[in-house]
Amino acid sequence: VLKGTHDQKCDIWSLGVITFMLLSGMPPFAGRDEQAILRSVRAGKYSFSAPVWYDVSFEAKQFIVRLLTKDPSRRPSCMEALQDPWLQKTQSGDQMPPLDTSVLENLHHFAAAGVMKRAALGLIAMTMSTPQVRQLEEQFRALDKDGNGVITLEELTNALTEKLNMSREEARTVFSKLDVTGDHEIHYSEFLAASLELHIADNESLILDAFRKMDRDGSGSISLENLRTILGEDYMGTRIEELLRECDINGDGQI
Asked: Where are the transmembrane segments (predicted)?
């Protein structure tokens, strides 16, 4: 693209950049300004030396290397990329971990939590790195039986009734609480937020980070306007004013 010509191999390169960012939380090409970044792109220089890569498999790194091959003629096609050993291993059914009942219990607890707590967990979920949530990612895949990238009502209901002896009616209630977007599917971000409670109980830095994200003006407290800026006028059908009252223990209009 930088040379003025491009074909579908540019999309393969872009996929490499996206995969790099999904696995590390950072872009592969960096620089102090736009020109420095472009020089890095042209040179094709990137690194797996950051600590976040320590727990990423060799196969995953090799997949990125193939996609980010500088010479387009040596870059794989879409079909060749789909046959990569890392993707084939990931899609293999025998790699699926058993479903952990503690994860299902977390989902149940999340559904019973206050709306403000669910909103805070959602913010934390969006900032966690891939290594921190790899186990939960595997559990999401274990629940997503048909592998379409979302958890359906039937998939969650079957898991909750089988593993926790929950009634189907109660399972449907849990599902509705997790379905933040209201599209009758549980997306990965929604599942992650619901599964985090026990994982962050002893991690004060994650809790503090969520507080700071809500404290938009850095005042040391969360105001009604802060919540409105982040969540809009309501969250999951609950007015922002009610969210504030839920946590405003001393009644001073802020958290």
From this structure: 12-30
Type of residue at 98? P
What is the per-residue pLDDT for 163?
A: 87
Residue 7 in this model has a pLDDT that exceeds 80: no
Indicate the pTM of the whole model: 0.51
pLDDT value at residue 63: 92
Name 246's Cβ contacts closer than 8 Å, sequence gap at least 6: 114, 115, 116
Tokens 């209630």: give the residue: 173
Percent of the chain's residues with pLDDT above 90: 13
Residue 2 pLDDT greater than 60, yes or no: no
Pick the CATH number of 8-92 from 3.40.50.10540, 1.20.1250.20, 1.10.510.10, 3.40.50.410: 1.10.510.10
Could you tell me if 214 and 230 are in contact, meaning their C-beta atoms sit under 8 angstroms apart? yes
Residue with token string 């939590």: 113
In the chain the beta strands, taken as DSSP E runs, fall at 234-235, 238-239
The torsion defined by the Cα of 173, 177, 179 and 184, in degrees rounded to 10, comes to 20
CA 212, CA 161: separation in Å to the nearest integer? 38
* Closest listed residue to residue 75, CA positions, set 19, 27, 8: 8
Q: Cβ-count burial of 216 within 10 angstroms (0-12 exposed, 13-18 middle, 19+ buried)? A: middle
